Predict the structure of Pyridoxamine 5'-phosphate oxidase N-terminal domain-containing protein.
Amino acid sequence: MDWSSNPHRITDPQALEALYGKPGQASVVKEVDYIHPHYRAFIEAAPFAVLATAGPDGLDASPRGDPAGFVVVEDEKTLLLPDRRGNNRVDSLRNIVADPRVALLFMVPGVGETLRVHGRAAILVDPPLLERFAVDGKAPRTVLAVRVESVFFQCSRALIRSRLWQPDAQREPASLPSLGTVLQELSKSAIDGVQYDRDLPGRLQTTLY
């Protein structure tokens, strides 16, 4: 679909402001350029975050998770985030090499509010730093050091509407195509989907770190 000639397309900030109005006082004062102690408590309680990056080949939003506190508040302007094992595409890291701007969205199970952090990241491989984040004797290959530029909480409306934390909203995995089903079709059967699904639980457990 081509939206370029749509007469109802918004193309400038003035049109947006005319449509939505100005933000309220609470929406403005909640934003600070450092990790306030209240925001620190939220980060340290979060076992999950989404890391957003931008690079010459496009955008990326990548899930990051570990036990609560896995993102370390080194000081009020610095966050440390270990890069755990994944699919080895390293899309986020490739983007950061080209463009250090990042955004993080922190989520705490059962809590409706989320926390947004914007900043600039560096990819570090200092051996002592990597060792700080070792789990079961396995250190991450890299650690992201994020220089914080903006922090604020997001209200709970989105999670209330989505009913994300409600037990009766949970889906049975079998109600969606399995990963093996997807891979077998996309690979034109070069990947055995049944075998992939059979091996996946064990592979996940042995490759978490």
